[in-house]
Sequence to fold (418 residues):
Amino acid sequence: MSAPTSDFLRVLTERGFIHQLSDLAGIDALAHEGRLTTYVGYDCTAPSLHVGHLLSIMMLHWLQETGAGKPIVLMGGGTTRVGDPSGRDETRRILSLDDIEANKQGIRQVFARFLRFGDAGRDALMADNAEWLAPLNYIEFLRDVGRHFSVNRMMSMDSVKLRLDREHELSFIEFNYMLLQSYDFVELHRRYGVRMQMGGSDQWGNIVNGIDLGRRMGTGQLYGLTAPLMTTASGAKMGKTAAGALWLNADQLAPYGYWQFWRNVDDADVGRFLKLFTRLPMDEIRRLEALSGQEINEAKKALASAATMLLHGEEAARLAARTAEQTFEQGVIAADLPSVDCPRADLEAGLAIGPAIILAGLAASNGEVRRAISNGAISVNDERVADDKRVLGTGDLSEGGVVKLSFGKKRHVLLRAV
RNA sequence: GGGGGAAUGUCCCGAGCGGCAAAGGGGGCGGACUGUAAAUCCGCUGGCUUAGCCUUCGUAGGUUCGAGUCCUACUUCCCCCA
Fold:
């Protein structure tokens, strides 16, 4: 691809955000003039977004930062009632309207950390497609939008084909998702002059359909840009760990856990992630990714702190870094580790190790705890537990009135006597 | 509408003569080695009050001392015919 002239595309290219774009020159020109009003849509299927969404959030961030255009965050209040089949092989559970509304509220808060909202020209704006999708009239929609879609072509789209090939059910309601998403694009153009849609590479088909529908419905030329599918160096899809999804909301995943996630990335991912998920300047990143061997841990810490700072703020990032240092480098019990309250009376009466570990959220059943103990995975106050009959008492409390429970070397929880 | 095939361990794929808590992968978790990395090796990967008991093979019944396995009905998917 020839070199872009706009800051926006230059930054995105340089930092590795671009997988596919519909028309480099067209996008570049609009970005150059600062008229590239762009939207990204987010489902409201969970109470928080997770790391997988971060990529597109960062793209919106750079859009605003480079002055390329107005970022629009589209909440899928309407489309979530239908369910996007892209990248899934299971029928999505239909959420109640209340759930969707609650999820929407949860998701909202994250964007304020990455975007500047307001009424001025390039201030970010948040929209909800329930606003125009909910009142749609079926007959009119079929007539105005439906007629532009070819079932033949829809059948050949990856999201549909995958379901068909794997012999999984694809309900009619989900089959319609791409019509709605395409229509969103058109509607956003009409309302806010949106010119481009961004998303993950799995959204390419939906985006292209939107561009197409726009042409047929008279929006003029629309554009699309997708980011590469985020995988780790080992090929795993990013966003989930044993502890659950890597949520962005602090009440779902504490800053410490978030920091730990970035601290533990694969060596091979450090440079790429620094570019994608932090705002560190490129020459600093080049210096960090040149580190090798033991030294690359410096780069990982920088990544963890920079990424955590972006999402949770400077103070939270500093605290997480300190907690990690105390826990992993100094071997002392850091007061800020995740903690769970435990009635003092339980400890006085003697609390068996199994229920204690479960209470701490480190395991799901006694059986799992027992197996973990036989694997040498469980520690109390950094002392390996050998006997699954081990009972915790007040004698295990350290000065701070806590017992440190560990599952493996990395997952630590403090049991706080209250 | 007719005919044939399929559904397995609630992550995925996938074996399974009527004695099955159910082979084997992948993935995940833990241990060793390291650097809170990767690779490698080893262990674990239904629940419980664990010499035992309970719940699991699409759903509901049935046959049998005993059913993932056989029979019937239903649900969903695939293929062929119309």
